[in-house]
């Protein structure tokens, strides 16, 4: 995934630092509560929401079960419509394909539609290494890029910034990337939006190459779909001469009728709108309109391995609505950067460890970045059982071992022996009761001491239950 997250600490350390940032917590609390409240109203308007949710789940599961066939059908349809399909097994291959395609045009800059897949593979950094500058055109992504920051939310990447911070970023950085911010810029949303619009307009009109992802790909026609709220995506998808789309292989849906379900559930779950203001669809190329060259890069990058896991593959249903982030008590307090991935929040806690593996301390910590409250499952428009997958991944992390897990296994083994030997258990209980005055109020060790910082240890009774029972019931 993106090199911008390389070297991030494990979630507990990152979250520990994040919760001390009062400005961050205030920004997150205001934004997530506002979005979740609006979403609840939008969803309540549909009497058949539960049926749509179940339909989305079934469509995704059926598609994943036959993914190989639908991808071949998609490739044939895109090719027949005048596009070119490239297959990328990992991030390095995808980056190389895109860089080669851009260099073949002779251009040294591209405009980009907001794309999780390109963030996942670190495309901007890879293009920069090849002498190609990528300009983000989504307003929130622009804020992140100008601020040399990292995205912290799937839907609103700059959710951790307030208006004053955005004004300062625009005023100090816009001039380094193109048209500077107007003199006397304030933090009024209308002024900030106008500054971004003027800054980006020259890039839209100049760029010859556009780069995008896609929310969906329709296998039966080879059509790609991008939904957005600002119109920058429409500009990037229609004005350049060459369009390159990098899309995860799980984004395919079989038919237009299947797409209809998600065009109802995605906008209501994400932006709380009945329909996205801009829904752009394109099928290959045409002589009269849009780019004259279209390239589709189908990205695996761990998705096939995820698909092989019967429990974990649920994560591939995700349509990137971010509803789970907005209701998660852990995300609200820790923020997105603590997850060390472009996929933060509950979905990131189950998707990232499957795409990247759990070899690093960071990735192994993500399945534990949850209270298992289940709020994420309740709002998921494709019914991903996120708590179930979290527990499943925790089991996998435990099976891989490590110092803490070896100690746990030794403790469980010792407890099993004691429970198999009643005399030893009785002797231990009597000893514990007689020495209870000497027992500590807090457990030793870093993990155990944290547990008892806010919890009282159970008080040891004056005598074991078995002795009481023997004296009073026999």
TrEMBL record:
Protein name in the entry: LutB/LldF family L-lactate oxidation iron-sulfur protein
Domain Lactate utilization protein B C-terminal, chain residue ranges per copy: 394-472
Organism: Streptomyces roseolus
Keywords carried by this UniProt record: 4Fe-4S, Electron transport, Iron, Iron-sulfur, Metal-binding, Repeat, Transport
PROSITE patterns the record matches: 4FE4S_FER_1
InterPro entries for the chain: 4Fe4S_Fe-S-bd, 4Fe4S_Fe_S_CS, FTHF_cligase-like_sf, Helical_ferredxn, LUD_dom, LutB/LldF, LutB_C, NagB/RpiA_transferase-like
Compositionally skewed regions (Basic and acidic residues) per UniProt: 453-474
Domain of life: Bacteria
Domain 4Fe-4S ferredoxin-type: from-to ranges: 315-384
Residue ranges of the region described as Disordered: 436-474
Location of the LUD domain: 73-297
């Amino acid at each position: 995934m993106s090199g911008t997250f390389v070297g991030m600490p494990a979630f507990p350390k990152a979250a520990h630092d994040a919760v001390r940032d009062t400005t961050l917590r205030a920004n997150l609390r205001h934004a997530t509560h506002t979005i979740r409240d609006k979403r609840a109203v939008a969803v309540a308007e549909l009497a058949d929401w539960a049926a749509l949710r179940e339909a989305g789940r079934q469509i995704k599961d059926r598609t994943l079960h036959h993914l190989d066939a639908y991808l071949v059908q998609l490739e044939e349809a895109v090719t027949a419509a005048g596009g070119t399909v490239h297959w990328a097994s990992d991030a390095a291959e995808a980056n190389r394909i895109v860089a080669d395609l851009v260099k073949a045009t002779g251009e040294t800059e591209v405009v980009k539609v907001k794309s999780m897949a390109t963030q996942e593979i670190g495309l901007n950094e890879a293009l920069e290494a090849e002498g190609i500058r990528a300009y983000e055109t989504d307003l929130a992504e622009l804020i992140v890029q100008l601020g040399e920051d990292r995205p912290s939310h799937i839907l609103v990447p700059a959710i951790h910034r307030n208006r004053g911070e955005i004004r300062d970023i625009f005023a100090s950085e816009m001039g380094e990337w193109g048209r500077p911010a107007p003199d006397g810029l304030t933090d009024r949303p209308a002024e900030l939006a106008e500054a971004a619009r003027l800054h980006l307009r020259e890039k839209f009109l100049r760029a010859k190459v556009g780069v995008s992802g896609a929310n969906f790909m329709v296998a039966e026609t080879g059509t790609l779909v991008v939904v957005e709220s600002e119109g920058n995506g429409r500009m990037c998808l229609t004005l350049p001469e060459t369009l390159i789309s990098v899309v995860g292989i799980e984004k395919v849906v079989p038919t237009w009728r299947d797409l209809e379900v998600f065009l109802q559930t995605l906008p209501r779950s994400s932006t709380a709108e009945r329909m996205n203001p801009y829904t752009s669809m394109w099928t290959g190329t045409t002589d009269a309109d849009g780019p004259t060259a279209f390239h589709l890069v189908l990205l695996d990058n761990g998705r096939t391995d995820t698909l092989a896991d019967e429990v974990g593959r649920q994560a591939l249903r995700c349509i990137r609505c971010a509803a789970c982030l907005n209701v998660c008590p852990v995300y609200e307090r820790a923020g997105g950067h603590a997850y060390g991935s472009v996929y933060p929040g509950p979905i990131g806690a189950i998707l990232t460890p499957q795409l990247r593996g759990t070899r690093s301390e960071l990735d192994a910590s993500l399945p534990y970045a949850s209270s298992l409250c289940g709020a994420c499952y309740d709002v998921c428009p494709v019914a991903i059982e996120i708590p179930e997958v979290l527990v499943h991944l925790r089991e996998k992390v435990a099976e891989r071992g490590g110092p803490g897990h070896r100690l746990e296994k030794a403790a469980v083994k010792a407890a099993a022996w004691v429970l198999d030997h009643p005399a030893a258990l009785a002797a231990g209980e009597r000893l514990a009761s007689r020495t209870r005055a000497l027992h500590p109020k807090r457990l030793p060790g870093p993990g155990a001491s944290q547990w008892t910082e806010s919890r009282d240890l159970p008080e040891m009774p004056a005598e074991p239950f078995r002795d009481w029972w023997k004296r009073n019931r026999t």
